[in-house]
């Protein structure tokens, strides 16, 4: 597959690294030579110093033969122009990064497709949705719904009160077990567990289950004493903060703290009265306490500085806030944030890359998610008639090591998959695998 990525910024370089491991034919173009100098020597990809909106430059890199053209420069109008040019030169599929919510409205989809932009991606909006799903439940690290919530993925950290510690998984219940442990993050290692593996203290355990068994997962994870989130304090008035405040459920009260007065005035115009805007330094603990930090169930740090966000979450935890979320854009810091027990970590470029990655899979995939902490991916496949996955019960499929089927949705109902489960055409199947193995799994669904 020939893939051209226009823009060697944070999202573009992360995506190029991700895809270069897959042995795809990757060309990364940018008109800033400095940005690309470190990349080509370390990764299996070609870098070209050219403007993404130059017809001559696009012809030189062969945009007309591209299977996928991805424009992720920081400039929205430039991305749209680059996609239009690439389509007219002959690129099969184009994706453009934007920062205008209006463009994503369903009524505008056809308009952009006619222009030559097949898909639009808005990383800040995706990040905000992820934040909201993680603060809905104070005891959850990660929450993700498949098929409108028919099947749910929950990531939770195991504390001393967890009931499932040190028991081999095969002893936890019989065939009627209402959940499946699909992945375990232990230190820097991610396991796709087998029956004789055990859950240990401080593991982050990823469960799949159906909605009615979520309280049961909460009980066995020892999290019943965690208060529900009613009050949210956000540090930093970024675009992600604005979207987060707009997406939170109506029963939550939101306060945004930002030290830029002009930005605070702008936030007041953008957001309705249920969001309180406070002009002040979010690093000032006295100010935060005065504004009710101790009565806040969730603290979200969204400044442009990863270190500040990590430290602010640590300070909030010390003040007794149970749920903290930090935006950590420096990928090297994600492991550190986890070892410091920050809570949920949001990384915009990983989220954006997951969504783009999904577009290049051949099978019918409606969802791909990169688990920020775990080196694992989750994909939701729709099963076609005659595909390999339908030929045998799950235990006899010979799935590659490091993969597991977390569950399936059949006729709108979530089902936890066991060894004897027979997958049928039309099922939506949720697969977990260690990083970079989705391509190996894909052939079972084609």
From TrEMBL:
Residues 1-121, 229-346 form the RCK N-terminal domain. GO terms for cellular component: plasma membrane. GO terms for molecular function: potassium ion transmembrane transporter activity. Gene3D superfamilies: NAD(P)-binding Rossmann-like Domain, Regulator of K+ conductance, C-terminal domain. The keyword Chloroplast does not apply. Keywords: Ion transport, NAD, Potassium, Potassium transport, Transport. Residues 141-223, 366-446 form the RCK C-terminal domain. The gene is trkA. It comes from Bacteroides stercoris. This is Trk system potassium uptake protein TrkA.
């Amino acid at each position: 597959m020939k893939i051209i990525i226009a823009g060697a910024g944070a999202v573009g370089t992360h995506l190029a690294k991700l895809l270069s491991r897959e042995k795809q034919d990757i060309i990364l173009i940018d008109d800033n030579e400095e940005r690309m100098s470190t990349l080509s020597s370390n990764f299996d990809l070609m870098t070209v110093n050219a403007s993404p909106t130059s017809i001559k430059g696009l012809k030189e890199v062969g945009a007309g033969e591209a299977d996928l053209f991805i424009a992720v420069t920081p400039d929205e109008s430039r991305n749209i122009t680059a996609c239009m040019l690439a389509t007219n030169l002959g690129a099969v599929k184009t994706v453009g990064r934007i920062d205008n919510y209006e463009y994503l409205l369903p009524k505008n989809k056809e308009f952009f497709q006619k222009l030559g932009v097949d898909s639009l991606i808005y990383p800040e909006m995706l990040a905000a949705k992820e934040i909201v799903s993680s603060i809905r439940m104070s005891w959850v690290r990660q929450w993700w719904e498949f098929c409108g919530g028919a099947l749910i993925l929950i990531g939770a950290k195991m504390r001393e009160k967890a009931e499932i510690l040190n028991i081999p998984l095969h002893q936890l219940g019989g065939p009627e077990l209402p959940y499946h442990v699909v992945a375990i993050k232990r230190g820097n290692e991610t396991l796709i567990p087998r029956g004789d593996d055990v859950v240990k203290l401080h593991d982050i355990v990823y469960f799949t289950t159906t909605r009615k068994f979520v309280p049961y997962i909460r009980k066995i994870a020892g999290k019943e004493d965690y208060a529900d989130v009613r009050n949210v304090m956000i540090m930093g008035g970024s675009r992600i903060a604005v979207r987060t405040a707009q997406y939170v459920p109506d029963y939550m009260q939101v306060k945004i703290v930002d030290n830029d007065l002009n930005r605070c005035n702008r936030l007041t115009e953008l957001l309705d009265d249920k969001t309180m805007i406070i002009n002040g330094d979010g690093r000032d603990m006295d100010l935060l306490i005065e504004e009710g930090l101790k009565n806040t169930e969730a603290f979200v740090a969204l400044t442009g500085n990863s270190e500040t966000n990590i430290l602010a979450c640590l300070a909030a935890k010390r003040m007794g806030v149970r749920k903290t979320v930090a935006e950590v854009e420096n990928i090297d810091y994600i492991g550190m944030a986890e070892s410091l027990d920050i809570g949920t970590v949001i990384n915009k470029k990983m989220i954006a890359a997951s969504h783009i990655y999904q577009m290049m899979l051949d099978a019918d995939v409606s969802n791909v998610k990169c688990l920020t902490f775990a080196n694992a991916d989750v994909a939701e496949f729709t099963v076609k008639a005659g595909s390999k996955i339908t030929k045998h019960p799950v235990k006899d499929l010979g799935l590659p090591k490091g993969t597991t089927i977390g569950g399936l949705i059949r006729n709108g109902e979530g089902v936890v998959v066991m060894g004897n489960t027979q997958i049928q055409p039309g099922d939506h199947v949720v697969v977990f695998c260690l990083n970079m193995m989705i391509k190996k799994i894909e052939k079972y669904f084609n």
